[in-house]
Amino acid sequence: MLGLNKKHATEEIRNPPSDDSYSMIQALFAKNKEIGTYTLSLTILELINQEQIKCDIDLDESYDVGSKLTSEDMEVMKKITFRIANKGELKTSETLAINLLKNMNKNKKFNLKFMAKQSNNPSIANKFEKDLEEFAKAIENENEYDGKNYRDLLENGKLTSKGKELKKEWKDFQGYLESEELSKKYPPESADENSAQILYASCFDIEKNALKSRENNAPLTDFIDKDGYKLLNIIFNNALLHVSEKRKGDGIFYGVNDKYTIPGGG
Asked: Angle at Cα 64 formed by Cα 59 and Cα 69, nearest 5°?
C-alpha cells in the first residue's frame, strides 16, 4: 500500500507530514492539482466541520454515487440541506466560498438537489465561474502559492527533490488513512482528530475508504458517508460545463470533469 511498511509503522504514522492547509496539500500532492472546483468543495467541507455551514441529512443509510448520475442520486441530494450560519471571523477564501453558495442558490438554506438544478442555468453558471476565479485567487494569496512559502517544494510548476520527498511522506500517510489495520492500531484520539483525518483523506479522494475505519460522529463525517464530497464536485463541475460566456484574459483552467451530467435544463 503506497510503499508503507505496516510492520515498522509506529504511532507517529498518525501525524500528518506537514502543517500545510488542506487546499495546498491537495494542490501540491494530490492528482487534482488545479486550484478550482475540488478546492472549493474541500473548503466547504472545512466550513461544515467549523459549523459555519450547518448540514442536515434526512438519510440514515450510507450512500455511494455510481458511475453515472441517477434519479436516486438526485433524491439523495434532496435529503441533504445546507444552512449557512456564517458566524465569527473567516478567511477571505471562506467568505468567498459562502458568498458563491449564496449567489448560486439565492438563499442561505437550500438542498443539494436545488443547487444541482441551479448549476444547469447558464446565467448562474457564468456568475459561478467568476466567483470561482476570485475564490481561487484568494486561496493562492492566502497561502502564497508559487511564492516564498513553496519555493523549496515547487519550481517552475514541478516538485523539487524536497517536494518529491514530502510527497512520499504524504503517500505513507494516505496508506495509514486507508489501512483498516493501522487505523485500528493507531486510531484518532479525539473527535476533532477523527474529522481532521477525514479532511486529509478528502484531499486525496479516499475519504470514503478512510471513514470505513473511523467513527461517523459528526456532521462532516455523515456528509462524507452520503458521498457528499463527490456530489459537490459533480455539481460544481456541471456549473462550469454550462458557462455560456467565453472570457478572455486571466481566466483559470479548472480541469472540468464532464463524466457526470445533471438532468434538467436551466
From this structure: 100
Using the predicted structure, report yes or no on whether residue 44 has a pLDDT greater than 80.
Answer: yes
In this structure, how many other beta carbons lie within 10 angstroms of the beta carbon of residue 57? 16
Has this prediction a pTM greater than 0.85?
A: yes
Q: Can you tell me the distance from the alpha carbon of 68 to that of 46, in angstroms, rounded to the nearest whole number? A: 27
Q: What's the CA gap between 234 and 263, in Å, rounded? A: 12
Contact 80, 112 (CB under 8 A): yes
